[in-house]
Amino acid sequence: MPINKFLYFSDFFAIPVMIVVFVWLAFRSAGFAAAAPDFFISGVIGALAWTLAEYFIHRYAYHHAPLLSPLHDAHHKKPNEFIGAPSFVSIPILVAAGYLPLYPFDPIAACGFVAGLSLGYEGYMFVHHATHHFKIEPGDWLYQARVRHMAHHYADATNFGVVTGFWDRVFRTVRVPRRERASRRAVP
Q1: Cα angle at 14 between 48 and 150, to 5 degrees?
Q2: Number of folded domains in the chain?
Q3: What are the pLDDT digits (tens) for 55-71?
């Protein structure tokens, strides 16, 4: 189930290359001035869409899908192991989900959307890796993500958002750790 370090870290290098390719494809066809608004709006939508996709993938696929839940269970048992999807798996999924459906209607928007989706995925991978492998102290910008994600490891029916807790609040799956609840009550 664990993968080697090269495969684990490959997305950290391959995804930015993929994003550059889609930026190039969008601007090559129409030029920067013509393509930029469509590309950037689609990119923002793609990045925001990733946060919702992350929530649903984590909540349903990682916890209930027969192929993925054993991998996620292994991650919960050994959270510091290098467990994940290598680039040759993640990139085709991102392209199939984010680029192919939009391409027939608007190729530039398709490029922007998949670039934004991929940027969101890259952010998710970084934040998830950091919550398990970086020394994060209270006050660090990643601290809330770590607290939220560690709470998920102790109550795995909650806190499915890694990068943001927004969708957990929307779908009422947020869990605030006991220590944090006590400190919130103490504040007048």
Answers
A1: 55
A2: 1
A3: 999 999 888 888 888 88
Residue 128: count of CB within 10 angstroms of its CB = 19
Structural domain including 80 reads 5-186
As a whole number of angstroms, the distance between CA 163 and CA 20 comes to 23
Model confidence pTM above 0.85: yes
pLDDT classification of 53: cutoffs 50, 70, 90: very high
The set of residues, in sequence order, having a beta carbon less than 8 Å from that of 93 and lying 6+ positions away, is 85
Q: In the chain, what is the straight-line distance between the N-terminal and C-terminal CA atoms, in Å?
A: 48
d(CA 7, CA 125): 13
Task: Tell me how far apart the alpha carbons of residues 27 and 40 are, in angstroms, rounded to a whole number.
Answer: 11
